[in-house]
Amino acid sequence: MFKLMVLLLTIACLALAGCASPTALEKTSEAATNNKYDVDWEYVTKIERNSRSSALPGRVIWVNPPMKKSDEKL
After folding, report:
1. Rounded to an integer, what distance in angstroms lies between the CA atom of residue 24 and that of residue 22?
2. Which helix H or strand E contains 42, and what residues bound it?
3. Rounded Cα distance, 16 and 8, in Å
4. Cα dihedral 62, 52, 38, 42 in deg (nearest 10)
5. For residue 66, which of 6, 40, 42, 70 is within the disulfide window of CB 3.0 to 4.6 Å?
6. 53 occurs within a structural domain
């Protein structure tokens, strides 16, 4: 019985997700592309340099590198 309820709930969630408004997504993506962001290489260099000179062993892996707003507009 529990598995049936979980299955029905999953199907209902997938059906509702398919009804999402694409116009809202278009507006969000359009607003996001108005500003240009670049990787903040100064900050990346500073952190990696401090990591190499640290007494503790370790390595920095950037999953989401720090970003800064670019001066130029698209």
Report:
1. 5
2. helix 41-53
3. 12
4. 160
5. 40
6. yes
Q: What is the pTM of this model?
A: 0.48
**pLDDT tens figures, 33-71:** 566 888 999 999 999 988 888 888 788 899 999 999 887
Those residues with Cβ within 8 angstroms of residue 65's Cβ, 6 or more apart along the chain or in another chain:
39, 40, 44
Q: Specify the residue for token string 């920095």.
A: 60
40 occurs within a structural domain? yes
* H or E element in which residue 22 lies: helix 22-33
Backbone angles phi, psi at 38, to 5 degrees: -125, 160
User: Quick one: tokens of 38?
Assistant: 């670049």
Q: Is 39 helix (H, G, I), strand (E, B) or coil?
A: strand
